[in-house]
Amino acid sequence: MIPAIDIEKLSVAFQSKTGATHALQELTLSVSPGIVFGFLGPNGAGKTTTIHVLLGFQAATSGTAKIFGQSVTDAVARHRIGYLSENPDAYSFLTGRELLTMAGNLFGLPPSEIKRRVNVLILETGLSFAADRRIASYSRGMRQRICMAQALINDPDLLILDEPTGGLDPLGRLEVRTLITSLKERGKTVFFSSHELSEVELICDRIAILANGRLLAEGPLGSIVPAGENLERFFTNTVTRRTDLAAPL
Amino acid sequence: MKTLSPTFQGLTLLITFWIFASSLACVLAASRPLQGSDDSLLDRLLGESRKTLSVTFYNQADVYFHKGVTHTQPTAFQDTLFQQWGNIITPRQHVHAEGPLSAEILPWLKLAAHADPHNVDAYLVASFWAETGLNRHDLATGILKEAQRLNPADYRIALEKARMEIRTAQYEAAMNSLDHASILLAQNPLDTESDMDKAEICTFSGFILEMKGLTEKAVVNYKNVLVIFPERFYIKERMAILEAGGKPVDSAQDLLKRLTRQTAHDACKDEDENHDNSKHINHNG
Amino acid sequence: MRQIITVAHVVWLEMIRRKDFYILFILLSALLIWLMIFDVFGLTTVSGYIKDLGLLAVWIMGWILALNTSIRQLPQEEQRGTLFPLLAKPISRLNIILGKWLGSWSITCLALLCFYITLWLGITIKEGRFDYATLCQGFLLHCAALAIVCAMGLALSTRMNRDAAATTAYVLTGTAFLMLPKIPSMLIHTQGVAGALLLGLYYLFPHFELFDIRHRLVHDWGCAPWLTVCEILLYAVLMTSVFLILAWLSYRNRRFTRENLT
């Protein structure tokens, strides 16, 4: 089976006046289709850099990254991806409906299909009352929902979520969690980075822990977290121990 | 969405500063009015810069007289593709606006006069065009009246009025205007051209007096011309004939007509000897 | 093509919902009304000065609008974070550049058309007239000049922030428009390095003066030869392509991170 995400010895280095900064060092990772994958790590671990390489926002220094067998440098690879960024960024001068239609057009969907999907997503995200209002008038929660709808417009096989619950209230978090679960039930792959370890524990099939651009642990949640230990303690121990070792590198 | 772009913010800032500076200028102007100020709102807002604006509009009138063709400059090279295209796109012929087109010159002169009501040249040229270009004597008279109202001490307006009256054979009125111009000139001489104008006033007065048979008074005027320009042999010769009781070949009336007949096209011809309206030659100013 | 039009469509909607165009339109209308009621010694049928000052205003406004619209596109996408969802779609960066350019240029041309129609109305009310063929030619050339201006603005904004790009673009386009035609005269007295520099600028910078046939419209010179107009339009296509290629080269491998967003 072709992996949803296949990363092989991926390195990213940034050149600055003080020298090279290694954001990612030979990261190798594979995500099978149909699972919920939690991508964890402290701030500056390289989670967002990995996501940015997967989405083509930035190029890798070395190594390869593939989405469903296609190189991420090829725009076609993004046909099967839905992406929700950390902040609910949307064109504030557009209405919710216009934003979704625009996204549908960028995926090259037929106009009738766009219309159908837009209506369905507006209903599903509970934005029917505000669909024809400008996004400038939306609350943060409403923005998050319209951005989620935008990420789903192409009915993606892989959904990449960068800190999807950041800044949301408990109700909003529950909505996102429910959505991820429903997507998994529909056979979709969800790859998401998060600091909310309790969320990860609840919904993830597999996790990977990253620190200083290196992969510290990866595997099914039940097998990598020792019995009697919770994810938070395991994460803290792993990151603290391994970053001390990795620091001189 | 609700904020303006940086350029518009810049423009807003510019306008704010401009209003502030103008307000300050108003306060200063109120305490010490500018020389020659008519105390209007425009004068208070623009101050001395009105004069520059007025000169710009005045020069634009000349550009309109040449149908938008400006003087070309000598260049280091001449046959680049850009120059070839430019020469085709931008007309370079020396032509003059004629007929109804000459009316298009007047707005620029009006704008020049509006920007600086003391730009007497703008009024004079406007009245000249109204009379010779559009054959609108009434309009020309109105323009001069407006100029005189705003610049009562300027002799050039009275002189222009006299020229116009001579062209329409109103010699009595012309004589009065010349006398008026002469008095104003004595009171408020200009730095430049005053001598030239004084000589013209005396010459015109002399011719009109000659026509009225007042030869002695005419001679006095001719003598005044010679005080300013002793080399004017024609006047010298004419004066000698008159003093000898003779009759000059050219009548005073013909000379007056000839001297006041000049059109703008003639004036341009004097400035540019190479001018050939029919051949549309290059205007190498 | 559909992706390019989609990106352009967003630019159109933004422009329609912003205040820029409306402010300029009100300013133009106010200027025209003032010129129309301006008393020219009681003459009522003169309109050349309205054409002249009106066209000058239209040129300045078109220039401001084209630069403002094109320059803000890419930096604004970064600033508000909408670039990330956009880049996550299966759209190439070349298509983003082309879409942004098409959107900026076409909406500026539409605004320009409104300006020209307003001016035409003003002139018609004043009993003046435009030679329609020359007016079409003038509009066409004006649009072509704005195509270069938009491409230039976009190219500068790929590596600069909005303010820096706007300042640079205004200086460069303004200098090109005013100084380039005078370089052949300036070179008579300028030699050496300065002369070579001026010559370089003369050949490299876009010659905006070629697109300006206002004097033909104002002074009733009639149409310019269509062959020359076509050649100049071809030159505009070439210059626009050059700036768009530069924009793409500069943008295609640009790294975007949230950290460098301001």
What would you note in describing this structure?
- The complex is a heterotrimer of chains A (249), B (285) and C (262).
- With 249 residues, chain A is of the alpha/beta class.
- Chain A is built from 8 helices and 10 strands.
- The radius of gyration of chain A is 19 Å and the shape is globular.
- The model of chain A is unreliable at 245-249 (pLDDT under 50).
- Chain B has 285 residues and is mainly α.
- Chain B contains 14 helices and no strands.
- Mean pLDDT of chain B is 76; it is low at 31-37 and 273-285.
- Chain C has one domain (2-257).
- Chain C is 75% helix and 0% strand.
- In chain C, helix 6 crosses helix 7.
- The two termini of chain C are 32 Å apart.
- The chains are: A alpha/beta (249), B mainly alpha (285), C mainly alpha (262).
- Chains in contact: A-B, A-C, B-C.
Question: Can you give me a brief rundown of this structure?
Answer:
The complex is a heterotrimer of chains A (249), B (285) and C (262). Chain A is α/β, with parallel strands linked by helices and 249 residues long.
